[in-house]
Amino acid sequence: MNVITVENLSFRYRRAKEYSLRDVSFEVRRGELLGIIGPSGSGKSTLCLTLNGIIPHSIRGDFSGEVIVRDPGTGEEYNTIETPVAKLSTVVGLVLQNPESQLFSMTVEEEIAFGLENLGLDRNEIMRRLRWVLEVSGLKGLEKEFPPNLSGGQKQRLAIAAVLAMKPSVLVLDEPTSQLDPLGRNEVLGLVLLLRKEHGITVVLVEHHTDYILRFADRIIVMDKGSIVLEGKPREIAEEAETLRRLGINLPPSLEISYELKKRGLISRLALTEEELLSGIRSL
Ligand SMILES: Nc1ncnc2c1ncn2[C@@H]1O[C@H](COP(=O)(O)OP(=O)(O)OP(=O)(O)O)[C@@H](O)[C@H]1O
Ligand SMILES: [Mg+2]
């Protein structure tokens, strides 16, 4: 079942000369982790903004085609152009590229409760959700902290927690680790995997760390100049290493090395991870 269906979507920001999205069509399937990669300026963030209606409701421009969001709980379908962002946000949660821009409260718990109060939920339900997201996001004990004082990884987990509290079926994360050190990066990506495995949340993840996407995504979309240029399973995308390189996408060393070894007929299978590379080399 598709939770999001995008059909022939094109978008040009107001006053921009060029289209930032050009005839984009794809679907997000329930329960999957869909990875999106592509060079800077290829339209990844713009695409994310269309998935919960911020484009075209809050950011305007020339919009054509459609984005249909389906609530897997009720089976109801919403065309984003006809549905307010507040409604769409309860199905599709979007964590923006820069988490600082999303945090504005005095404490961690206020930050999380803010969106819930706006939903008009009663006090008990707010408390229940607050406890749940503090627990899953690993922020328990930090309820009274001032968000700017948190570490990078904690800030990003808070941004995710605040969105998660709305109980969306789909979580869209736009480069959640781009400003983090390796430790913070592991914290955040670990949370994403947990949400997917243990809470059944569908994930759309824009990530320039291609190694993670190749290892954990079910499917990958590659964007360039506002269009989808490749779509497939990680192994299918890895086979296109030369195209990825040409687009300026960083490839993980295990893929680079195995690609060269395979080209020379030394191994038969590309390695998506270091473990696969090692076992390939050991069998030489
Ligand atoms: N608010 C805006 N107004 C006009 N043009 C914009 C706006 N935001 C983005 N663009 C343009 O749209 C295109 C796609 O930008 P977008 O931010 O979606 O790319 P991206 O793939 O997310 O890049 P990055 O990897 O750097 O985050 C770029 O050419 C960019 O300059
Ligand atoms: Mg971006």
From TrEMBL:
It is found in: Cell membrane. This is Hypothetical cobalt transport ATP-binding protein. GO terms for cellular component: ATP-binding cassette (ABC) transporter complex. SMART domains: AAA. Keywords: ATP-binding, Cell membrane, Membrane, Nucleotide-binding, Translocase, Transport. It comes from the Archaea. The keyword Protease does not apply. Gene3D superfamilies: P-loop containing nucleotide triphosphate hydrolases. Belongs to the ABC transporter superfamily. Probably part of an ABC transporter complex. Responsible for energy coupling to the transport system.
